[in-house]
Amino acid sequence: MSTDRRTFLKLSAMAAASAAAARATGSQAAGISAAGISEDQARRTGDGVAWNKAPCRFCGTGCHVQVGTRGGKVVAIAGDQQAEVNKGLLCVKGYHVGLALYGEDRLRTPMLRNGGELVPISWEEAIGVIADRIELDPAGFAIYGSGQWTIPEGYANLKFMKGGLSNNHIDPNARLCMASAVTGFLATYGVDEPAGCYDDLDAADVVILWGNNPAEMHPVLFSRLIDRRSRGEEITLIDIGTRRTRSTAHAQHYLEFKPHSDLAIANGIAHLLLKNGTWDRDFVARNCAFRRDDEKGTLNGEAMSFEDYVAALESYTPAEVERISGVPAEKIRLLADLFGDRSLRITSLWCMGANQHTRGTAINSLIHGVHLLSGHFGRPGDAPTSLTGQPSACGTVREVGTLAHTLPGGRVVTNDKHRQYTEEQWRLPAGRINPKPGHHTVAMFEAWSKPKKEGGDIHTIWVQVTNPGQTLPNRNLLLEPGVKDPDKFLICSDVYPTATTAIADLVLPSAMWVEKNGMYGNSERRTQQWFKQVEPPGQARDDVWQLIAVARELYDRGHAGMKDKDGRFLFHMADAQGREVPVWRWERYYDINVDRALFEEYRPFSRLKHKDLAPYDVYAQARGLRWPVVEQPDGTWRETRFRFAAFDDPYVAKGREIEFYHSTTDDGRAQIWFRPYGDPPEMPDTDFPFWLCTGRVLEHWHSGTMTRRIPQLREAMPQAYVEMNRADAKRLGIQNGEQVRVESRRGAVEVPVWLGGRGEPPPGSVFVPFFDERTPINLVTLHLFDPFSKQPDYKKCAVKISRLPPSPPPQRPTPQRQGA
Amino acid sequence: MPVLSAVLTMSPDPRTRAELLRTLALDPRLSLGDPVEDRLPLVLESASREEDRQLWDQVAHSPGVVHCELAYADFSDLHLHPIS
To answer: How high is the ipTM of this complex?
Structure first.
């Protein structure tokens, strides 16, 4: 490397860090470009690196990066100084995001399984194979997608399935990660997604983590709290969890609860608010009603009186909650006292701990209920906010609506008017959309893994942008029988070989991240956009192109569903002069911006639920905007930070401070639910005496298919492990690093024990991360799910730990402290 | 020759902070920027990716570092897999 170039790099790096430091402290950083490099510096050195914005590819935080490209490759990454989310800073995964493109084993050509081996074929053959499988029985074809689908990808798939095939068997992996958050929001407010945003973290006096570890999972968000503390601000951080984590280390109060008993804790807070008379009478009288489950088990339940609500909570005394949860009664009183103090601002955060729960809808609605009952809602810093794990679980799955029962913009297939509107928008003949919901994720794979003669009505699943071979629970039930059944067929579009491509019959190489145009929607309702910046490798192609090519193949074969009511192609696209562009031909795909066309078609759907989106070109200029984004008289577009609050939300009726304008009771009120504690479906016993919790680690994202190909991250966390309590290990004679067997009634894996590692589970509990495909812990997990959200519980099942016969010493994970 | 930059959040204690700055300044692989309140921008240069990771870990664990985040990373020197 030349001295000039090295000097330039150092200047660039220092400029980026200085600007980020200034931004984070609210100081000025004049003369710094988006990448943190001054224009003068760039001109002087003639570095030749082009910089463009993109959201990070990994988690749901939605940090923006500046991507440096040169010679057709991504060569540098900088935190985006203009991004409100991350203010120029990145976590260790974001810093490596550019390297995720360059693993040596990127998929480069379509492959079809023949005689047990995957054999290269042409794209034309691959598209033909998919069309053949659909024509075999269109009703038995399914698509399994992702919260990593871009917004246009999700929209195109939804339109293809529900508008083209009249088939609702489309569901995303987000069913496994945030479906209970959705049902919690719907049951409480009548509309999905948080009212607050990340700004709440800058204003809260108290932050409560409900089974959440943002120090590792959302480190850039967590750093906002650390920053405030380091500036001398007082923030009370309370960690309500089932094991000590890195977040615990920063908390003043750690409330360790027995798995599943978070419901009792929430009920205990509500009990004390009522007993102490510290609930917010005015707020509740104006804005809330009370609700409980009905006999039919509907999401909206039935109304209950305030008196019945009080009576239902009567038994949740601090002593009783301590008995159920193990949390000392004085800690329950502490929580109730904090919620009972209206001078404080309280933000609750949660993610998988509350969502991956067989009572996920219940605990989600109870957290909302505690905030509503205490009036801690609608002011900056007063917010119940669920976080998402994927970059577009909100933007694509929840807003576009890629679930088995949904249509775009919060509509559902069971609603006549919603189907009618969607058919009109898509120019379809009336009655094209099937009113019966399709299979949710667990049911979809059950139907695929069951022989047709036994009712297994799914013959083919097309998996896109996700890895169910590693992430489905109880794989031996949901996948293995289908893999062995010759009548079943699995298609997988991905960027690397995975546990899913290993069992797929057809593998399609996809473009990823800045190898294509894209749009995401993050955890705080922020819609983000980026442009393609480098070419994908080999024959890898955009996922949207793959779908449109299949649709066109069916159109050419005469499939009626691929035509609109005027006989035009379902994905008809035209240039500025109105001439049709054959985007199904790869060489013509980028003649127009297909993302822009799809997004503009989707945008009108967003208004029904007041989730208004701005035009595509507005997002191209922004670092994301939080919906509803409403056009102003001067032609600018204004985002909304705090929903339902008159001071910021333009849709709140005049004269009201708060209005829940999608109330399930049509009266502007949110619902405060009573939901009792009950034991989980599987608990430790004599045969399987430990609780198992699964989750993620800082260095690896989800199933590790991208981050395990980045040497720095792989070295920092080389393999999965089982965290045990030292007392349990001592009792069983297990040494640190010793290989053990973790076994449930469903399956087993062998992993090394890590004592005193990242986390510290209490006696009787163990933790195993799921990023390592060599030790797939989801052979062990439970597939039972929440009755409303259909989301499985990955956080608790019963296992036993067994020592193995002596063998050579295994490689032990190297503990690293990487940021946050 | 990896180059990356970070922003350290330093301890509010003046003595701890001063000792941290003194220690970091002794390492020739580190270039310290001007602190902005409790934030210290710095550049880390190393001879290899392995050293880069070790150096980062060492800095992040230094007494007086409350928090550590990345701001910039260049990997143009790495052998990236060919595009076609």
So the answer is: 0.91
